[in-house]
Amino acid sequence: MGNGWRKAGRWMGQAALGAALLAGCGAPAAPAYRIGFAQCSTNGPWRQAMLAGMERELSFHPEVALKMLNANDNSAVQRQQIRELLDGGIDLLIVSPYESAPVTPAVEEAVARDVPVVLLDRRTASPRYTAYVGGNNLEVGQTAARYAARLLHERGDVVEVLGGPGSSATTERHQGFVRELGAHPGLHLVGQVTGDWKDLALRPALTALLRQHPGVGLVYAHNDAMGRGAREVCQQLGIANRVKIIGVDGLAGPGEGIDFVQRGVLTASVLYAPGGEEAMRTALKILEKQPFRRENTLGTLVIDSTNVLTMRQQTEKMNSQQTDILRQQSLLQRLRATYSSQQTILYGLLASLLGALVLGALAVQSARRNRQINRRLAEQNAENDAINRQLVRQNEEILHQRNQLAALGEQARADTEAKLRFFTNFSHELRTPLTLILGPVEELLSSSPDLSTAQRHDLGLVRRNTQRLLQLVNQLLDFRKIEVGKMAVRASEGDLVAFVREILDAFEKPARLRDIRLRLVAAEPVLTGWFDGNILDKVFFNLLSNALKFTPDHGQITVSLQAAADGQSLRVSVADTGHGISDQDQAHIFEWFYQGDAGAVAKGSGMGLALAQGLVRLHLGQLTFSSQPGQGSTFVVALPRELPAALRATGPVEPSTFALDEPEPLPEAGPLALDAPAAEAASETLVLVIEDNPEVNDFLARKLRTAFRVETATDGHTGFRLATDLIPDLVVCDVMMPGLSGLEVVAQLKADWRTSHVPVVLLTARHAAEQQVEGVQAGADLYLTKPFNPTFLLESVRTLLANRARQRAHYRRELAVDAAPGAPTGPDQTFLADLTAIVEANLTKTDLSVEDVARSLGISRMQLYRKVKAVLGTGVTDFIQSLRLTKARELLLDDALTVAEVAYELGFSSPSYFSTSFKARYQLSPSEFRVRHSSPAR
């Protein structure tokens, strides 16, 4: 892991401080954070400015170490370098991709390893990243086009110099430029040349194009270097005085954009910030668990003769301040080194003084000890007599304590026996009410033909779970019989292959429903031996049930039978392709009521394997297992072929009626054709049910569909994904689930602003007060314990949805015209603040669409619609229109703007449409509103 940090790369942020500490007090301290930077290239001043920005920000954080790897514009190399950084043990990864698609798998691998990823300048092809920092190339192109229209007074021919072919920056800057030119009919793009970001590559093609179009008045170059090359071409052609040059980047320093504008080489440069400082600040917020923005779009502006001097002075002042900071840090490091050196000398002097004092004290103590030795020799004899007397007393105490321990052990055995008797009696008592439940249910199912499909389904649910309880009670009674030695073996001679095949047939249907292949492999067609079928069917039912429970869908279970080499015993093995048994659980797998890591995947009582081992031992056999985590497990039952006469039956043996609870899905739990009254209600309200038990999942869905639309999921990961995709109105979630628990689902839903507003109802069998508090602290709106009343659940859901509707009304009032929006205090308020900021920043765009807003927020159009609908109860288009009209009220109070100018300023397609919309909202035309609200003095 550490080799990656020793390979070739660039380190920053701790070098100077580390040298000083090494000189003063030994090896430098390990960095608090390690950040890896996968840079697509360091060629060109813009990339170097990005790196310089990171260095400036790191100068304030000596505890942070940065390693930069340069891919030299090679996607394959960059993908390998990202994996090298991950293997080196970084805490955060910054990536500036060369190409989006090839680098995406490596970035997704970093996210899967729980390493935060900050994308810089360019995005990947996947939404799986932690944060993005970069400029808006579309806006760069649009800004250049608007400035070109001002320079040419809305009329003239334009030439565009493109960057590298295939680059996302080239594509977006061109799209933004062309899109904005469409709003200025007098401007014409007469031609394009490719400069590939260099000033020399464009000259032949640009010279020919300018000669072909002598009326060209402006050249738009995608970076400042190509703008300088265009100026030199114009000078050679003698047209430099009338052709305007617009570049992009606006970097500081000699020979860069700001310098070109000040010297007149470029008419203007559109600022495209490298974003090094912003990326490093965002990375530090993520590492320090501080709030951060996921999307960080850097602003742009035009640098021309009106502001170039101010921009240059600001950059020079910033560089001067940075130099002062570095000088102060260097001085601090020298002072620390001096202090450390002086401290070492002081410690040496103190150590020498202490040594002298110790030697003097030893000399005095040695003389005193010689005198004491003689005195102690006389006292030792007296002490020996006292020790002998004390040993006699201790022996008597030990004898007394042994007698007490024996009495306590006897009492513990009596208490344990009493608990076992209560345990057995209580299990017996459970059989009576279970029988009284099961009997009427069986009678209703067999003799009531007029039952509806839903009623028959519910009664089948009652019957299956009653049988399951009865089987658990039978297992408890068998456990008690084994403990007290009253489980008798009554063996008879039979064919073990036929016996196992009959048991395997009972598992055929549930295995088929999950596409699990069951195989029976027998070394011989018939293997005879002495065995008790009533005991062995419990053993094999437990082993097969366990294998089916832990084997994933489309897996395989193989049952093998063979005789031992000496012919004295038979071996039956049950092998599955499941998850296997962890090393921690293997030592306890045969303990009563033990549930290890498997309890999170498949629920059970923890008695099956312990009961199977006890029954095999009664049969004078042995149960063993082998397992590899992730590859499956194999359980082997070894049985003697002959049994002593005392274990053989003297008469006919009645067949066993024992049957363990079969794994889900049960044969009866097939697809349910619901009656018409239970069909899904015609409601727009969407409820998401997340429950891993198929029968409980189906039960909840059927009850809720009477009033709402319902979607279901059977695990936490799928449920969270559906919640973020569908944005439901409410979530009903179980607590105990494999993979992602219900508490974790709630925490993730409340932390994600897409779903932070969704009420969550937790259902669980954990009814302790502290467990309910844990659920509420995780963010649940309601905590219901099983069993629950379906009517109460429905009414609770309606109440939560009604409360949510009142909250939507509150948010709408906050966004009303006369209400001053407060500071964001939660995820919903933060979402509304971000949404409002994006819309207000684009109010002038006539073609502002829902897709544009969704793209700025980094979500899909449907997710944005459902989020706005859930929080405000209105559509996105209505929200945009409302903000425009609210802003119109402010602008109309300014007499310097005409009504038509206000309309175009706010993105309305025409003044008439603006007047119609304004009057529909405020019952006044814009002119009437201005007259009514104007001051009399004016």
UniProtKB/TrEMBL annotation:
The protein's name in its UniProt record: histidine kinase
PTM sites of type 4-aspartylphosphate: D734
MF annotations from Gene Ontology: DNA-binding transcription factor activity; phosphorelay sensor kinase activity; sequence-specific DNA binding
Leader sequence residues: 1-29
Regions that span the bilayer: 345-367
Boundaries of every HTH araC/xylS-type domain copy: 833-932
Lineage of origin: Bacteria, Pseudomonadati, Bacteroidota, Cytophagia, Cytophagales
Entry's EC annotation: 2.7.13.3
Residues annotated as domain Response regulatory: 686-801
Top enzyme class: transferase
Coiled-coil ranges (or none): 370-397
Domain Histidine kinase: 425-643
Reaction catalysis annotation: ATP + protein L-histidine = ADP + protein N-phospho-L-histidine
The organism of origin for this protein: Hymenobacter nivis
Record keywords: Coiled coil, DNA-binding, Kinase, Membrane, Phosphoprotein, Signal, Transcription, Transcription regulation, Transferase, Transmembrane, Transmembrane helix
